[in-house]
Amino acid sequence: MGRSVTDYVPHSEQDVRTMLDAVGVESIDGLFDDIPEAVRRREPLALPAGLSEAEVLGEMRRLAAANTPATSLVSFLGAGTYDHYVPAVVDAIVSRSEFATAYTPYQPERSQGVLQTIFEFQTAICELTGMDVSNASMYDGGTALAEASLLAGHQTRRGRVVISAGVHPEYRQVLDTETLHSGPRPQVVDLAAGAATDLEAATAAADADTAAVVVQQPNFFGAFEDLAAAAEIAHAAGALFVVVADPLSLGFLEAPGRLGADIVVGEAQAFGNAMDFGGPGLGYMAVSQKLMRRIPGRLVGETVDSEGKRGFVLTLQTREQHIRREKATSNICSNHALNALAALVHLSWLGREGLSDLSLLCARKTAYLRQALLALPGVTAFTEGPVFREFAVRLPAPAAPAVEALVPLGFLAGVPAARFAAQFGGAVGDLDGILLVAVTEKRTRAEMDAFVAALAAHLASTEASHD
Question: What tens digit of pLDDT does each residue of 407-422 get?
Fold first, then answer.
């Protein structure tokens, strides 16, 4: 007798019906409508009875070989997750059992190694951002931004956050969700021509009820923001200034803490963490000293033991949920410690000069590809000014079909901005032709030239079909 998927979950038919009604689909099968029919498998695998484990595994490998692995494609994907080289030393260290299986280091006498790695991660984030205090990490960039906004609301006792439309749309979605019933509500300000934030609109929006002004550097479309000017806008309104900063870009950009930031958050996946289908991420958060007692999550401090030897402990734990319950600064009392360790190892492997070199290499390769794309007929700049690792161009045809057409040719051409149209709500105009392209140190000139040629051929064929 066959079994359905609901035979393996502890929910009643009414539970399932309630869930389906909430998400707006008719059946369990409706949850998988986005998966093309041609690649769905509705029936159990047709395996002969009595196969050994080795034989079953062999069949699984045969089926898997029919896939085209993403690693065989030249990737220009970005939009928050990037294809950087992960040095071998990262996996060698994070796979050690004392790190891979470590639990919360509540007992410092048994957890000095883990505590030290967290302390060193905090130190690295402070040095990058120019801030006074960093926590042990966050889940990802989106939750870090939400926590920063909640902190700003608690600190200022105000009800709104003025946030640039250039902040990652998925981060803004997380912020919407986390502040729906508690915390300052976001007010989005549009972008000016060239994709940077409209600072005049931000000035008009910031008032006596503004808890924070938030910009991203570089922003979602790769444009550079004027952090010093944005900080003046925030502080003139009595609000905090929050920067969502790409930590790799801080290898050659001025630290936000030296440009007026009160809180700096972001996504550090680029250090030591592979793309892995978009996760897990690695959020970070750093604040000025005056906000130290409001920062969420764990803090590791340096001390000395009874013999005067250097040691590490969790500190200021009275902010945390496991002690203060509902009065805690945040409901987040965990972090991505292993991912943070991977980032720390990568940063240590790079060193100060290596980090600067890597940042500049990405910027130069990105500038090269943008110049080549803008030389194509009908392609224009959406992101203007200098760029670091990512930029947006406007194609003379919809971007999504172009991305799809280049996959068989061996390229992941980028991210069509129209995917995020609902989150922008018309704030940046028509997004159908906007393609977001990212370039890391892994991309060679030959790969970039071949990509430009492939895109040029696609655009030419598209134009010819319309004639």
Answer: 999 999 999 999 999 8
Strand ranges (E), 270-378: 283-287, 300-304, 310-314
Cα separation, 48 vs 439, whole angstroms: 47
Length of the chain: 467
Distance CA(113)–CA(119), nearest Å, equals 10
Instruction: Please answer whether residues 319 and 159 qualify as being in contact, where contact means their C-beta atoms are separated by less than 8 angstroms.
Output: no
Reply yes or no: is the peptide bond before residue 296 cis, omega within 30 of 0: no
Q: What is the DSSP string of 429-455?
A: ---TTEEEEE--TT--HHHHHHHHHHH
333-343: pLDDT as tens digits: 677 899 999 99
Pick one of 3.90.1150.10, 3.40.50.720, 3.30.413.10, 3.40.50.280 as the CATH number of 71-86+352-466. Answer: 3.90.1150.10
Residues of the chain with CATH 3.40.640.10: 88-344
- Residues 6 or more apart whose CB falls under 8 angstroms from that of 211 comprise 149, 152, 153, 155, 156, 158, 159, 160, 161, 184, 239, 240
pTM of the predicted model as reported, rounded to 2 decimal places: 0.87
Class assignment of domain 88-344? Answer: alpha beta
The angle formed by the CA atoms of residues 222, 74 and 280, to the nearest 5 degrees, is 65
Q: Where in the chain is the domain with CATH 3.90.1150.10?
A: 71-86+352-466
The per-residue pLDDT for 7 is: 60
